[in-house]
Amino acid sequence: MAGSSEICPALLLIGDGLGDRRVPELGGLTPLEAAHTPTLDALAAEGESGLMDPIGVGIRGGSDTGHLAILGYDPYKYYPGRGPFEALGIGVDVQRGDVAFRCNFSTVDANLTVLDRRAGRITEGTTELAAALNGLQIEDVTCHFKESIAHRAALVFHGPGLGDQVSDVDPHADGATIWEAHSTAENDAASEKTARILNAFVRKSYEILDGHPVNQARRAQGLAPANIALPRGIGKSPDLHPLNEAHGIKSACIVEVGLVKGLGRYLGMTVIDVEGATASLDTDTEAIGRAVVEAFRDHNFVLCNVKGPDVAGHDKNAQGKVQIIEKIDRMIAQILEAMDGKLILMYSGDHSTPVTYGDHTGEPCPILFWGPTVRRDLVTSFGETAASAGGVGRIRGLDVMKILTSYMGVQEKFGA
C-alpha cells in the first residue's frame, strides 16, 4: 500500500526539443545556458538535477516515442506509429482495424517534386482544404481527413483488410519527388492494399487541392500553395493501459499539438485545450500557465508540453529558442506562485533539437526535480553542463514516473 501522507500534486513539464549543443552564435553556450532563467536556476539550487535519455543512450527519438517513455510506456513495446496519436488528438475517431497517418499540407510542382514540405507554414484555409479531401472513397475504404495546427493534419483509412507495414510517400526533404508507397512485409496482402490506397489518395489530393480556391488565392498573394497532402507515420490503434490506473493518480494533459493530445486521450488523461496555445514561438505561455493551475483543482498530475523550443531548433533559430525558454521560465514562476510552492515539478525535454543541426539528435536532455519532498544536490543553475553534475545522475525516460510517483506519495511498495 502507498504511504498515508498527503499526496503532493505533480507537474511533468516538457520543453519540446529542449536539449541542445554548443552554439557559436551564443558564445559556445547552449540556448538553455544562454537564456536568462532565474526561476529555473533557483529551482536547480533547491532541487535535484541530472541528464535524461528519453528512449536510450544516443537514440534519436520523436515527440511521441519520447512522451511514451517518459510516461512509463516502453516505446519498443507499445509504439504503434505516429498516425493514431495525431488523428485521435485532433478528434478523428480511430477504430479497431483502421490505419492512421499524420500528414503535412505541402507544396509540389507538376512533377510532384516537393518544393516546401510545410507549404510556407500555412495557417489559414486548411479547414477548407481538409474538407475537400475528407470522405474520399477509394475502393472499399473511406478516407477521413482533418486539419490540425498550421501545416499539420491527420488521415485515417477505414475499411476491411488493411495492414500497416507500408513505406512512406513523404520524402522528408524539399527538392525530392514524392515516393511510391509499397508493402514492407513479404506476401502481406493487407499492407499491399493499404499501399495501393495510399498512393491513390496522394494523387487525388494533388488533383483536388492544386486548383482549390484557397490555393488560387495563395498564389495571387505570392504564397506557396498547399496543393498536396503528404501522409507519414503509419500505425494502427494501440492498446495502452490507462495512466491513472497504472499509477493511482488523476491526470490531465495540457499540450499544444495533436500528436501528444492523442497520446493523452489513449492513456485516459483529461485533455484540456488552451486558447492562444499556438505550438510556435508566439504561444501564450501565460494562458498555458493559468490552465495548468486550474487543472490542479480536479487533478493531482498534469502533463504540459510547450512546443516552441523544438520549432526554433528545427528552424535553426538560436535567438528564438533562447526567447521561448525564457518565456517558459516565467510561466514556471507564475505556476509556482499560484500553487504556493505546493507542487512537485519535473522539467526536461522529450528529445534534443539542436539549432546547429535542425533536427532531433540523440543527446540527453537536462532534467530537474523540485518540490517539498525532493532532495537537494550541489547544482546551482539549470543547463546541459550544470545538470550533468547533479544528484539525479543519468537516467532513462522510463525512470521518470517512478521518481515522480515516489515524490508524490502514490507509489506502491515493491516487496513485503
With helices defined by DSSP (H or I, 4 residues minimum), what is the helix count? 15
The average pLDDT is 95
Ends distance: 10 Å
Order of helices and strands: EHHEHHHEEHEEEHHEHEHEHEHHEEHEH
Q: How much is the radius of gyration in Å?
A: 22 Å
Dominant shape: globular
**Spatial sequence of strands, sheet with the most strands:** 10-9-11-1-12-13-2-14
Runs in which pLDDT lies below 50 for 5 or more consecutive residues are none
Q: Helix share of residues?
A: 25-40%
Q: Would you report the number of β strands?
A: 14
- Percent of residues in beta strands: 15-25%
Largest sheet: 8 strands, mixed
Secondary-structure content class: alpha/beta
Give an overview of the whole structure:
It is a single chain. The protein is of the alpha/beta class and 416 residues long. It is built from 15 helices and 14 strands. It has helices spanning 31-34, 38-46, 63-70, 75-78, 82-89, 126-133, 189-209, 213-220, 243-247, 258-266, 285-295, 308-314, 318-338, 384-387, 400-408, and strands at residues 10-15, 48-53, 99-108, 114-116, 136-138, 141-147, 152-158, 228-236, 251-254, 270-271, 301-306, 344-348, 365-370, 393-396. The strands form two sheets. Strands 10-9-11-1-12-13-2-14 form an eight-stranded mixed sheet, sandwiched between helices. Strands 3, 4, 5, 6, 7 and 8 form a six-stranded antiparallel sheet that branches. The longest helix is centred in the middle third of the chain and has 21 residues, at 189-209. 53% of the residues are buried.
